[in-house]
């Protein structure tokens, strides 16, 4: 375990004592079973009970963790892990599929993640991101480079959900975002060139032309809307 993770776990054990049940590293930083020191580290912290006092005590640890470039840890109680498994299937599936236990018991070892709400959550999340994308478009419509950046950032978010769409359709769901999006595009006969153009965006590249950015955005929206229609009919 890297020193950063050892120090983090040590600080959590000192802060929470016997109330701390598990610390789990999950997500892209542990793809392939190895910890990627360069990737942001997402961590689940499981306590026996959570009060405002517990969260206040964790503030210095969480802030230092965030200042090191990592997302704030996600806190659950052991009971909530069981009760919420059917409410957050997308998040719990992501956590369980690629994880590394840093401390305590593996909370996913015996957890039953219900998927009967998966389609509804996927449609809700996809429609929410689409509405947000349309709203943000209005703020960048006259700046093609900012529009290109908006598409790039949003595709990263959509790709996470597209993994679960693939799984829902009974297909293998790669963890790597570009591969996942392209596989779904193949399955649903979407325009792969649009996704490739957005994935290839770099803030250091030459300036996008306004016409190109607008046409790409219109086509991108159409692809996302087609995915949502498929999810809606499942």
What features would you describe in this structure?
- The structure is a single chain.
- The chain has helices at residues 3-16, 52-67, 78-83, 89-97, 118-140, 144-168, 177-188, 192-199, 210-233; strands at residues 20-26, 42-47, 74-77, 99-104.
- The chain is an alpha+beta fold and 234 residues long.
- The chain has a 4-stranded mixed beta sheet.
Mean pLDDT, all residues: 90
Portion of residues in beta strands equals: 5-15%
Structural class: alpha+beta
Discrete helix count: 9
Q: What are the low-pLDDT stretches, counting only 5+ consecutive residues below 50? A: none
Name the strands of the widest sheet in spatial order.
3-2-1-4
Oligomeric state of shown chains: single chain
Termini Cα gap? 42 Å
Radius of gyration over alpha carbons?
A: 20 Å
The largest sheet, given as strand count, sense and whether it forms a barrel, is:
4 strands, mixed
Principal-axes geometry comes out as globular
Number of strands: 4
Instruction: Give helix and strand order, one letter per element, not per position.
Output: HEEHEHHEHHHHH
Share of helix, binned: 55-70%
Outline of this structure?
The chain is built from nine helices and four strands. With 234 residues, it is an alpha+beta fold.
